[in-house]
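Final report, Chapter 2: Outcomes

The project's central promise was a pipeline that accepts a single protein chain and returns its three-dimensional structure in a standardized token representation, suitable for archiving and comparison. That pipeline is now operational. To close this chapter, we reproduce one record exactly as it appears in the project archive, with the input sequence first and the structure output second.
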Amino acid sequence: MKYVRIGLYVVVGLLVALLAGFLWGRAGRSAVQMQFDDAQLRLDLTQARANLLAARVDLFEVNFGRASQELQAAKAPLQDAEQRLAALGRNDEAGRVRDVAARVVQASDQTSRLDQSANTRLAAALVLLDQVATSLKTGGPTG
């Protein structure tokens, strides 16, 4: 009977150790996951910014076809960034990114009409995008 009781204590101890290890590992994974999500968000914003800057250069060179391609390429990372921000509950930043995407659509329409004033709309979109990136760096409002 004594051996059964000792065996039971060993089994309970092992179960407690497994549970503690699982919880400890899960806590570390969530911190890593948050860092990964933050890095992915910054990557999306940086990629969209690069596309918008390239589109502005193309507009300066009066290359409307290439500018249109760059604007199309900027839409996907902007949508991804908006979804990530909304999932994190950062509704203010998500709204700004949504506004940037709307300006990109408007600039794309202007570009298809060979309208050089699309450059002004892109400049405003870049200012908004920079505000979002700055608030992410400073750990701005969380919605």
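Archive annotation: The mean pLDDT is 86.
This record, like all others produced under the grant, will remain available to the consortium after the project formally closes.
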